[in-house]
């Protein structure tokens, strides 16, 4: 039996493994928190770390991210600054 990804977005912060100047990015996954960590880590280079950001999207933000046809399990990442 397969597990459902859920129907809400989870925000994840990822940090590079560069000790001198770590890079931080934000990831957004249409998945439950434990699944979101795995999905986002699979989308970044090996050695990076990830943690759930304790934030909730507003209904407007949720709709904005649903417009590009996000499917359960999809991940969106911000570009490095």
Global Rg: 13 Å
**Total beta-strand segments:** 4
Summed up, the helix count is: 2
Strand content: 25-35%
- Structural class, by secondary structure, is alpha+beta
Instruction: Give the SSE order as H and E letters.
Output: EEHEHE
Percentage of residues assigned to helices: 10-25%
Strand count, sense and barrel status of the largest sheet are: 4 strands, antiparallel
Strand order of the largest sheet: 3-1-2-4
N-to-C span: 40 Å
Low-confidence spans: none
Gross geometry: globular
Average of the residue pLDDT scores: 82
Q: Tags for this entry?
A:
four-stranded antiparallel sheet; alpha+beta; 81 residues
Describe this protein's structure.
With 81 residues, this protein is of the alpha+beta class. The protein has 2 helices and 4 strands, in the order ββαβαβ. A 4-stranded antiparallel beta sheet has the order 3-1-2-4, with helices on one face. The protein is globular and about 40 Å long.
What topology emerges from the helices and strands here?
Blueprint: E1 9-15, E2 24-30, H1 33-43, E3 49-52, H2 59-66, E4 75-77
Antiparallel strand pairs: 1-2, 1-3, 2-4
Provide a brief overview of the structure.
Helix content is 23%, strand content 26%.
């Amino acid at each position: 039996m397969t597990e459902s990804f859920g129907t809400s977005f989870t925000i994840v912060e990822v940090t590079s493994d560069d000790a001198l100047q770590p890079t931080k990015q934000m990831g957004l996954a249409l998945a439950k928190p434990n699944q979101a960590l795995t999905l986002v880590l699979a989308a970044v280079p090996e050695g990076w770390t990830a943690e759930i950001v304790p934030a909730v999207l507003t209904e407007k933000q949720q709709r904005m991210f649903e417009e590009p046809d996000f499917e359960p399990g999809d991940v969106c990442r911000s570009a490095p600054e």
